């Protein structure tokens, strides 16, 4: 199975799934192993959906980059007061954190930095 | 509204996942009804989070009750939103806990409550009233000692699923194991996934919980990263709910000017979710 990031598990839909799985495990309805399989499937499904179904474009301009960090191929930014637009619709945000994984899959990422 | 697509994409993901794990449920001899239950729980939770206008897509149907219950929280107020989430968690978790801890019912409940107040304390007895559990849940939920205890829960949890309670760090420790089953090790490179999940699932105050599981599910390299992250979160307090999870194509810098090309993002901004295929950022440091 191709590798997919677990990154999206912390999104609201990922959290909702993890919580649901936890409930089921707690009630001994499913095993943790099975829950892991579901999560792996989720990693795949969400990644593919984002890639294929979403067409929106977003821009962040003129924000103040408060913090940046690059570790283990993961970029983390904290942006203050970005002028943030999604499909020309402005979203007022005073602070946002960006966690970004390499779009090259981990296997291929080695040669790139 | 530009996040109207969110509900569509999310329900697509739910359907996709449910369809694709059916065979796994079969192989594990788990009844299909449980799969249905999972789907229902999942959908309910994501709806209750009110991160997207499900109504607009005609997907609401029977769930009006849940939605109404959450109206008071107000989706745009993120603090309320977080609180509500943990409240829901407590409610959701109480029932099964009571059942599971039949032998020590009052203890279990009491501990549930004290633990919310005393975030730094270990959480004994909560779930199963199982003594073995005490030894495990204490270190995993105790921030400062969690890194020491990394290996203990792994071994014990492997064969006894009862010991598994709702803490996500357990799920994520399982992940560590899964590595041997063909899951690339580099999955661990995504450091904070577990952290946020646990923060939301655990009824403990969010900033403390966020740090605990990070220590647990990431040893070595990543714990360093998480560490800084958490300090930051703690130092700056609120507002970290605004988060973008995405991939990057390219990040470049000239002097203090940064440019990044991002893609496949899920954003959570002011309690709402947005998705983007491509995102460009220009920042000054």
TrEMBL record, chain A:
Task: Please give the SUPFAM superfamilies that the UniProt record associates with this protein.
Answer: Transcription factor IIA (TFIIA), alpha-helical domain (SSF47396), Transcription factor IIA (TFIIA), beta-barrel domain (SSF50784)
- Please list the residue ranges annotated as the Transcription initiation factor IIA gamma subunit C-terminal domain: 61-103
Any single Gene Ontology cellular-component annotation: transcription factor TFIIA complex
Where is it mainly found? nucleus
State where the protein is found: Nucleus
What the entry lists under CDD domains is as follows: TFIIA_gamma_C, TFIIA_gamma_N
One annotated GO molecular function: translation initiation factor activity
Q: Which UniProt keywords apply?
A: Initiation factor, Nucleus, Protein biosynthesis, Transcription, Transcription regulation
- What is a biological process (GO) this protein takes part in? transcription initiation at RNA polymerase II promoter
Q: Which family does it belong to?
A: Belongs to the TFIIA subunit 2 family.
| Complexes and interactors | TFIIA is a heterodimer composed of the large TOA1 and the small TOA2 subunits.
Q: What is its biological role?
A: TFIIA is a component of the transcription machinery of RNA polymerase II and plays an important role in transcriptional activation. TFIIA in a complex with TBP mediates transcriptional activity.
Return the protein name: Transcription initiation factor IIA subunit 2
Automatic annotation (TrEMBL), chain B:
Gene Ontology terms: cellular component: transcription factor TFIIA complex
- Source species of the chain: Rhizophagus irregularis (strain DAOM 181602 / DAOM 197198 / MUCL 43194) (Arbuscular mycorrhizal fungus)
* SUPFAM superfamilies recorded: Transcription factor IIA (TFIIA), alpha-helical domain, Transcription factor IIA (TFIIA), beta-barrel domain
Task: Name the family.
Answer: Belongs to the TFIIA subunit 1 family.
Would you indicate the residue range of the signal peptide? none
Per the record, where are the segments of Low complexity compositional bias? 66-84
Provide the protein name. Answer: Toa1p
By its UniProt entry, which Gene3D superfamilies does this protein fall under?
1.10.287.100, Transcription factor IIA (TFIIA), beta-barrel domain
- Biased composition (Acidic residues) is annotated at 217-237
**Keywords for this entry?**
Nucleus, Transcription
